[in-house]
Design a protein that fits this description.
By secondary structure, this protein is an alpha/beta fold. The protein has a single domain, classed as Luciferase-like domain (TIM Barrel, Alpha-Beta Barrel). The chain is built from eleven helices and nine strands. It is globular, with a radius of gyration of 18 Å.
């Protein structure tokens, strides 16, 4: 199982070091991907711009949106161009993870009807696919193949059908190893029924904190980010891994559940978190 690390784009106090220095450290430490999570009505850095900055100072590590709330990007042609540009500049390292999200304030700010988000998303996926295939003359072309690497999130049957039709794999969100193990068979079944060969790539998300004050940092960062979510907020905080033993257990749990990659997102902006996580994940 590959192990990636998130950029602290949603953590209070993030600055240039939290993108540029963090990205360099993550690549040097051997992580597979740099990830971002997405909000609009929040004091966070925008995902695609953050990954473009990371692309400029790295050479190997993948650049992953986990996820980008696609229906908020109402100009699908522009979104296709932005993603393909990062893919070309990074020589094929862009991994676009997309889903519909669910924050009403994000949709209100974008002047998009959240009740139509599923239909909008389906139309976007078809349009992105056609643009990347060269229809309409909108370039640049993806670095290799018919599209940048594409993952689709969601835990409904309709989501799994989208994965099988359009994507390279599924991003499972942060429900924990047990939820992944319970849902993965349905994703694989949809993939097989669509006539796809092999298995969909499966990426999962977790949160971590290491070093002094890890538990307090988790509660503060995730408590603020998920303040809108009611009881789910506490579930996210309780599910985050505080300390080396908890991080190791989370990694082992996702490995046993069948994840191809686990991306661990930080709750601190201190770039030292990269090295602390590498010690636990890779034994160095």
């Amino acid at each position: 199982m590959d192990i990636g690390i998130g950029l602290p784009t949603t953590v209070a106090g993030v600055d240039r070091a939290g993108i540029v220095d963090w990205a360099r450290r993550a690549e040097a430490a051997g992580f597979s991907s740099l990830g971002t999570i997405d909000r609009l009505v929040y004091d966070n850095y925008e995902s695609l711009i953050s990954l473009a900055a990371a692309a400029a100072v790295t050479d190997r590590i993948r650049l992953l949106t986990d996820i980008l709330i696609a229906p908020l990007h109402t100009n699908t042609a522009l979104l296709a161009k932005q993603v393909a540009t990062i893919d070309r500049l990074s020589e094929g390292r862009m991994v676009l993870g997309v889903a519909v999200g669910g924050r009403p304030d994000d949709y209100a700010a974008s002047e998009v009807d959240p009740g139509r988000r599923g239909r909008l998303f389906d139309a976007q996926l078809a349009r992105l696919t056609s643009i990347w295939a060269g229809e309409g003359g909108i370039g640049p072309a993806p670095f290799a193949g018919p599209r940048p690497q594409l993952l689709i999130g969601g835990n409904q049957v309709r989501s799994f059908a989208r994965v099988a039709r359009y994507a390279d794999g599924w991003t499972s969100g942060g429900g924990g190893p047990a939820a992944l193990a319970a849902t993965l068979p349905a994703v694989r079944q949809a993939w097989s029924e669509a006539g796809r060969e092999g298995s969909p790539r499966t990426v999962s998300l977790g949160y971590f904190g290491l070093g002094d004050g890890a538990a307090a940092g988790i509660a503060r960062s995730l408590g603020d980010y998920y303040a809108f979510a009611g009881p789910y907020r506490d579930m996210v905080i309780d599910g985050a891994a505080a300390g080396p033993d908890a991080v190791r257990a989370l990694i082992d749990g996702y490995l046993a559940a069948g994840a191809d990659e686990l991306v661990l997102f930080p709750t601190s902006v201190d770039p030292a978190q990269v090295d602390l996580l590498a010690e636990v994940a890779f034994g160095r």
